[in-house]
Design goal:
With 381 residues, this protein is α/β, with parallel strands linked by helices. The chain is 66% helix and 8% strand. It contains 17 helices and five strands. Strands 2-1-3-4-5 form a five-stranded mixed β-sheet, with helices on both faces. α9 runs antiparallel to α12. The chain is elongated, with a radius of gyration of 27 Å. The two termini are 51 Å apart. About 2% of the residues have low confidence.
Length: 381
């Protein structure tokens, strides 16, 4: 009986402490709630409105009808018009579009020939019936995007020509760039760099200031002439070296074990990676200035990690998310780094051609350092 009383006392004490710790109590509710909302609404494998471009070499009414027919499937959305195929290749490499439809000059003749053959006119050669009426140039590094585009090869054209299913129907030719074999590991390994760096870098620095407080070192730091910004920079520089080692391990093993190519410049890769490491470390510092204990800092880190992994485009295509989820994803450093590292490693893009993502990470890092420094200075007061 005494054991039950003692046990009741301990349980009451723990519940009271949990009630007073609003941060922990809030995380108990928010983490499963956010995870449910992310998987229920934001994560969608049925991709719609993929941003694509078009090279219309025909400039006819039929080519415009063809574009409208493909758009009606709601799988793709034409956001760019390119003058030639070279410009289209550059647009795909920079990540402006995920695919480009190239409509040839003789698209009318190709469609008419397919229609007459389908209605019973014998073909003059096998080439006439197998010749595609247009071509898709696709960024094959994302296998889910590539599979969605490949699903458009015949369906819209059959409806356009009004042919029965058992007739000879025209198709699109699909050319897959950067990952023609459609190996999932090619897309996963560069993305894994962003996920691991997000987990480790934020985790390292999220407890940095809290750890100093719990160990009693904060009072000693107050008496030193060190400035807040100097302390913040001193906290992140050692972990930058750790991040570089992690990137070398992941990409090195990816290349040697899984044959994942590194098509871009190592210097470009180093620049993008260092920028992301600094952004992640400063985010961890901001968390560390908010949290009152290391337990709280770990809980807040998990709170950031879940959307960073699920919404950054690592597991599910960014285009498949609703608009609200895309806005949240744009606020996360991991989203911008996913674009940068996949662009550099897989598509050999220079980071200067991806100025939006580079600028965003730079601004995030500067603002994060300023906020962390001001909050730390405020805590000293």
């Amino acid at each position: 009986m005494k054991t039950l009383y003692r046990l009741q006392a301990i349980v009451t004490k723990e519940l009271t402490q949990l009630k007073r710790d609003r941060m922990t109590f809030g995380m108990v509710i928010m983490i499963p709630l956010i995870q449910l909302m992310l998987f229920g609404f934001a994560i969608n494998t049925n991709i719609r409105d993929i941003p694509v471009g078009v090279v219309d070499q025909s400039q006819t009414a039929l080519s415009r009808v063809l574009i409208q027919t493909v758009t009606a499937t709601q799988v793709v959305e034409f956001t760019e018009h390119f003058y030639d195929v070279e410009a289209a290749h550059a647009g795909i490499a920079r990540g402006e579009v995920r695919a480009v439809m190239v409509i040839p000059k003789d698209v009318s003749q190709r469609l008419v020939r397919h229609k007459t053959v389908g209605l019973g006119t014998p073909p003059s050669s096998d080439e006439e019936t197998s010749r595609p009426v247009a071509q898709w140039i696709v960024d094959g590094s994302d296998t889910m995007i590539a599979a969605a585009i490949k699903g458009l090869r015949a369906m819209p054209l059959t409806e356009l020509l009004g042919l029965p299913a058992n007739r000879i129907t025209p198709t699109f030719e699909v050319a897959l760039f950067y990952n023609p074999e459609q190996r999932t590991v090619v897309n996963i390994v560069p993305g894994l760099v962003g996920v691991i760096l997000t987990m480790t870098m934020i985790m390292f620095t999220s407890a940095a200031i809290v750890r100093e407080r719990e160990r009693g070192n904060l009072e000693m730091l107050i008496t030193t002439p060190i400035r807040s910004i100097e302390l913040m920079l001193g906290k992140i520089i050692p972990y930058m070296l750790i991040g570089i080692v992690q990137v070398a391990i992941i990409l090195g093993l990816g290349y040697s074990v899984f044959n994942v190519p590194i098509n871009g410049s190592l210097l470009q890769l180093a620049g993008a990676t260092l920028l992301f490491i600094m952004a992640s470390l400063t985010l961890g510092l901001v968390i560390s200035t908010i949290a009152k204990s290391q337990l709280q800092s770990m809980q807040m880190t998990v709170f950031v990690l879940l959307p960073s992994i699920l919404l950054s485009g690592f597991m599910f295509p960014y285009e498949g998310m609703p608009i609200a989820a895309q806005y949240i994803a744009e606020a996360l450093p991991a989203t911008h780094f996913m674009r940068l590292i996949r662009g550099v490693v897989l598509r050999d893009v220079e980071i200067i051609d991806m100025t939006y993502d580079v600028t965003w990470l730079a601004i995030f890092t500067i603002i994060g350092l300023i906020v962390a420094s001001l909050r730390f200075k405020k805590n000293l007061g």
